[in-house]
Amino acid sequence: MQQHAQQSHQPPRPIPVQLNHTAVYARDRQLSAEFLAAVLGLRVGAAFGPFLPLDLGNGVTLDYYEKRDEPIQGQHYAFLVPDGEFDAMTARLDALGVTYYADPSHTEPGRINRLFGGRGAYFDDPSGHNMEIMTRPYARP
After folding, report:
1. Which terminal residue of the chain has fewer beta carbons within 10 Å of its beta carbon, N or C?
2. Distance CA 44, CA 116 (A)
3. pTM of the model
4. Strand (E) or helix (H) holding 26
């Protein structure tokens, strides 16, 4: 396999691959799914086996999976949200008593960032995942 990769001098052709779903570990799948649904203004779907889905509306589902007896490694999940919904989302965080931050290290509480001409904020979910809402995607080289 490695030999074949070394012989190829052309970049691979683009293949239309899309993320369909990902499992999100949670101490309490219902609590975590409902928390994010409340912040983003979405609805939690019906349980599917051990998973509780949150449909993001772009063909991607977060499938919450409960792990009560094991430590959960916090992950980062970033959500591109409509600019017109951003203030409502930060207001919902305030109403839930959840502090949001301008930075991923959580050193600027109660503030938002204005990266790439948009607005963004970071916050923790009930299982310790670092969530991000942003109105503009990051510019990539």
Report:
1. C
2. 31
3. 0.88
4. strand 21-26
pLDDT at 1 over 60: no
pLDDT of residue 133: 98
Q: How many Cβ atoms are within 10 Å of 137's Cβ, its own excluded?
A: 11
Query: What are the two backbone dihedrals, phi and then psi, of residue 37, each rounded to the nearest 5 degrees?
Result: -60, -40
Structure tokens at 129: 């995942």
**3-class secondary structure, 21:** strand
pLDDT at 6 over 90: no
* Number of alpha carbons in the 13 Å side-chain half-sphere of residue 110: 2
Q: pLDDT category, 11, cuts 50, 70, 90? A: confident
Structure tokens belonging to residue 27: 């101490």
Of residues 51, 50, 52, the one with CA closest to residue 42: 52
Is residue 124 within 8 A of residue 75, CB to CB? The reply is no
